[in-house]
Amino acid sequence: MHTIRDSRGQAPWLQAAKQDPMRPANPPIEPLMINAIQDMLMSSNPDGVAIAERALAARSADPDYQLTNEEASLLRSRIGGVTATSEALVHLIQAAVDANPWVTKFGATKDFGIGELSDPYVRMCRAECMLAAFVIICEDGDVNFVDEDRLEVLRDAPEEAVNAVKISLSIS
Questions:
Q1: pTM, full prediction
Q2: Which H or E element spans position 62?
Q3: How far apart are CA 74 and CA 37, in angstroms?
Q4: pLDDT tens for residues 96-106?
Q5: Beta-carbon neighbour count of residue 126 at 10 Å?
Protein backbone atom coordinates (compact mmCIF):
# COMPACT_ATOMS: atom_id res chain seq x y z
CA MET A 1 0.00 0.00 0.00
CA HIS A 2 1.37 3.42 -0.94
CA THR A 3 0.66 6.68 0.85
CA ILE A 4 -0.46 9.55 -1.34
CA ARG A 5 2.00 12.42 -1.09
CA ASP A 6 1.89 16.02 -2.29
CA SER A 7 4.58 17.81 -4.31
CA ARG A 8 6.73 18.24 -1.18
CA GLY A 9 6.56 14.54 -0.35
CA GLN A 10 4.21 15.09 2.60
CA ALA A 11 1.13 12.99 3.23
CA PRO A 12 -1.93 15.33 3.10
CA TRP A 13 -3.45 13.78 6.23
CA LEU A 14 -0.25 14.54 8.12
CA GLN A 15 -0.41 18.19 7.15
CA ALA A 16 -3.98 18.33 8.41
CA ALA A 17 -2.94 16.56 11.62
CA LYS A 18 -0.18 19.10 12.24
CA GLN A 19 -2.70 21.91 11.85
CA ASP A 20 -5.20 20.36 14.26
CA PRO A 21 -5.08 22.46 17.46
CA MET A 22 -6.49 19.58 19.51
CA ARG A 23 -3.78 17.14 18.47
CA PRO A 24 -0.52 17.20 20.42
CA ALA A 25 2.50 18.39 18.45
CA ASN A 26 4.35 15.19 19.31
CA PRO A 27 2.75 11.76 19.52
CA PRO A 28 2.90 10.06 22.92
CA ILE A 29 5.93 7.89 23.53
CA GLU A 30 4.14 5.37 25.79
CA PRO A 31 2.80 3.16 22.94
CA LEU A 32 6.37 2.71 21.74
CA MET A 33 7.42 1.74 25.27
CA ILE A 34 4.49 -0.66 25.65
CA ASN A 35 5.39 -2.39 22.39
CA ALA A 36 9.00 -2.71 23.54
CA ILE A 37 7.87 -4.20 26.86
CA GLN A 38 5.73 -6.71 24.95
CA ASP A 39 8.89 -7.73 23.06
CA MET A 40 10.68 -8.08 26.40
CA LEU A 41 7.88 -10.30 27.73
CA MET A 42 8.25 -12.66 24.77
CA SER A 43 12.03 -12.95 25.15
CA SER A 44 13.52 -15.86 27.07
CA ASN A 45 16.55 -13.77 28.08
CA PRO A 46 15.56 -10.12 27.76
CA ASP A 47 18.20 -7.45 27.28
CA GLY A 48 16.64 -4.08 28.13
CA VAL A 49 19.32 -2.11 26.29
CA ALA A 50 18.90 -4.10 23.07
CA ILE A 51 15.10 -3.93 23.30
CA ALA A 52 15.20 -0.15 23.76
CA GLU A 53 17.62 0.29 20.86
CA ARG A 54 15.37 -1.81 18.57
CA ALA A 55 12.40 0.36 19.53
CA LEU A 56 14.40 3.52 18.84
CA ALA A 57 15.56 2.15 15.49
CA ALA A 58 11.98 1.36 14.53
CA ARG A 59 10.84 4.88 15.46
CA SER A 60 13.74 6.45 13.54
CA ALA A 61 12.33 4.88 10.38
CA ASP A 62 9.31 7.19 10.71
CA PRO A 63 10.09 10.25 8.58
CA ASP A 64 7.24 12.26 10.08
CA TYR A 65 8.43 12.37 13.69
CA GLN A 66 11.79 11.86 15.30
CA LEU A 67 12.20 11.42 19.03
CA THR A 68 14.04 14.12 20.92
CA ASN A 69 17.16 13.17 22.86
CA GLU A 70 15.13 13.54 26.06
CA GLU A 71 12.44 11.16 24.78
CA ALA A 72 15.04 8.62 23.64
CA SER A 73 16.70 8.80 27.05
CA LEU A 74 13.36 8.35 28.80
CA LEU A 75 12.56 5.32 26.64
CA ARG A 76 15.95 3.74 27.39
CA SER A 77 15.57 4.41 31.10
CA ARG A 78 12.05 3.03 31.38
CA ILE A 79 12.64 -0.06 29.24
CA GLY A 80 15.82 -0.80 31.19
CA GLY A 81 14.01 -0.26 34.48
CA VAL A 82 10.99 -2.38 33.57
CA THR A 83 13.28 -5.15 32.32
CA ALA A 84 15.35 -5.06 35.53
CA THR A 85 12.26 -5.15 37.73
CA SER A 86 10.03 -7.33 35.54
CA GLU A 87 9.69 -10.25 37.94
CA ALA A 88 8.85 -7.95 40.86
CA LEU A 89 6.42 -5.97 38.70
CA VAL A 90 4.55 -9.12 37.67
CA HIS A 91 4.32 -10.17 41.32
CA LEU A 92 3.10 -6.67 42.24
CA ILE A 93 0.36 -6.81 39.60
CA GLN A 94 -0.77 -10.22 40.85
CA ALA A 95 -0.72 -9.01 44.48
CA ALA A 96 -2.69 -5.89 43.53
CA VAL A 97 -5.30 -8.01 41.76
CA ASP A 98 -5.48 -10.40 44.71
CA ALA A 99 -6.00 -7.42 47.05
CA ASN A 100 -8.97 -6.26 44.96
CA PRO A 101 -11.42 -9.19 44.72
CA TRP A 102 -13.72 -7.33 42.32
CA VAL A 103 -11.14 -7.82 39.55
CA THR A 104 -11.57 -11.58 39.58
CA LYS A 105 -15.28 -11.41 40.44
CA PHE A 106 -15.99 -9.42 37.29
CA GLY A 107 -13.58 -11.35 35.06
CA ALA A 108 -11.17 -8.46 34.60
CA THR A 109 -7.91 -10.30 35.31
CA LYS A 110 -6.88 -10.20 31.64
CA ASP A 111 -7.14 -6.40 31.77
CA PHE A 112 -4.22 -6.51 34.21
CA GLY A 113 -2.19 -8.92 32.13
CA ILE A 114 -2.96 -11.94 34.29
CA GLY A 115 -3.03 -14.97 32.04
CA GLU A 116 -1.04 -16.54 29.24
CA LEU A 117 1.41 -14.30 27.40
CA SER A 118 0.56 -16.12 24.19
CA ASP A 119 -2.72 -14.15 24.30
CA PRO A 120 -1.90 -10.78 22.63
CA TYR A 121 -4.47 -8.92 24.75
CA VAL A 122 -3.05 -10.29 28.01
CA ARG A 123 0.49 -9.47 26.86
CA MET A 124 -0.47 -5.89 25.93
CA CYS A 125 -2.29 -5.33 29.22
CA ARG A 126 0.60 -6.77 31.21
CA ALA A 127 3.01 -4.45 29.40
CA GLU A 128 0.74 -1.46 30.09
CA CYS A 129 0.38 -2.35 33.77
CA MET A 130 4.10 -3.02 34.19
CA LEU A 131 4.97 0.35 32.69
CA ALA A 132 2.29 2.12 34.73
CA ALA A 133 3.43 0.47 37.97
CA PHE A 134 7.07 1.30 37.21
CA VAL A 135 6.25 4.97 36.58
CA ILE A 136 4.11 5.20 39.71
CA ILE A 137 6.50 3.37 42.04
CA CYS A 138 9.98 4.08 40.74
CA GLU A 139 9.50 7.56 39.29
CA ASP A 140 6.61 8.82 41.43
CA GLY A 141 5.20 9.98 38.10
CA ASP A 142 1.80 10.50 36.56
CA VAL A 143 0.26 7.91 34.27
CA ASN A 144 -2.21 8.89 31.57
CA PHE A 145 -2.09 5.82 29.33
CA VAL A 146 -4.02 3.40 31.58
CA ASP A 147 -7.63 3.71 32.66
CA GLU A 148 -8.45 4.88 36.18
CA ASP A 149 -9.80 1.48 37.35
CA ARG A 150 -6.49 -0.20 36.66
CA LEU A 151 -4.54 2.68 38.17
CA GLU A 152 -6.54 2.43 41.40
CA VAL A 153 -5.80 -1.29 41.66
CA LEU A 154 -2.09 -0.76 40.97
CA ARG A 155 -1.92 2.04 43.53
CA ASP A 156 -3.55 -0.32 46.07
CA ALA A 157 -0.79 -2.90 45.70
CA PRO A 158 0.42 -4.29 49.03
CA GLU A 159 3.40 -2.44 50.49
CA GLU A 160 5.56 -5.59 50.44
CA ALA A 161 5.11 -5.85 46.66
CA VAL A 162 5.88 -2.14 46.19
CA ASN A 163 9.05 -2.49 48.28
CA ALA A 164 10.10 -5.56 46.28
CA VAL A 165 9.96 -3.51 43.07
CA LYS A 166 12.04 -0.73 44.64
CA ILE A 167 14.59 -3.23 45.94
CA SER A 168 14.86 -5.01 42.59
CA LEU A 169 15.54 -1.67 40.90
CA SER A 170 18.26 -0.77 43.42
CA ILE A 171 19.95 -4.17 42.92
CA SER A 172 20.01 -3.95 39.12
A1: 0.85
A2: none
A3: 14
A4: 999 999 999 99
A5: 26
